Amino acid sequence: MGCTVLEFLRVKVLTRRMLPVIAASVVAAIMALVAPAAAEPLDPRYPVCLQKWEWGGSSRTYCSYLSWEDCRASAMGLSAMCLANPYWSGPNPAGTPHGRSAPTRTW
User: Fold this and answer.
1) Is residue 96 part of a domain?
2) Phi and psi, residue 44, nearest 5°
3) Which of 13, 21, 35, 87 could form a disulfide linkage to 44, CB 3.0–4.6 angstroms apart?
4) Are residues 21 and 57 in the same domain?
5) What pLDDT does 82 receive?
6) β-bridge pairing 80-84 and 59-65
7) Same-domain pairing of 21 and 7
8) For the whole model, what pTM was predicted?
């Protein structure tokens, strides 16, 4: 026929206990969808970067261009612009990897 009062109360208690778990799961899922992406490292080996705007107002920066012309060719037709890589240290001097010299020992 119908459920007894005891069955009704049992279902109500289980539902009440599950509510925080369900709410936490929904909040976690929403945060995963709207959380900003991890910061992108700007590659110091390339002097020119392409900043590309994406849907929703976010942007990504790709530093993989050796010349302004290459970057402009990639940006053509996109909502993007080319900019100087702030981490580019210039051409590497001969014999020093990554433009850095070995530290001097003073002991």
Assistant:
1) no
2) -75, -5
3) 87
4) no
5) 95
6) unpaired
7) yes
8) 0.49
Task: Give the structural domain span for 2.
Answer: 1-35
Residue 102 domain flag: no
Closest CA to 42 of 89, 74, 78: 89
- Looking at the structure, do residues 17 and 47 belong to the same domain, yes or no? no
Cα 74 to Cα 80: distance, rounded to the nearest angstrom: 9
- What is the sign of the dihedral through the CA atoms of 27, 30, 34 and 39? positive
38: helix, strand or coil: coil
Q: Is residue 75 part of a domain?
A: yes
Greater pLDDT, 105 or 95? 105
Length of the chain: 107
Neighbours of 69 (CB within 10 A): 11
Q: How many domains does the chain have?
A: 2
Above 70 in pLDDT, residue 9?
no
What pLDDT digit, counting tens, does each position of 41-94 carry?
A: 688 889 999 999 988 889 999 999 999 999 999 999 999 999 999 988 887 655
Cα–Cα dist 77/56, whole Å: 18
> Does residue 68 lie within any of the structural domains?
yes
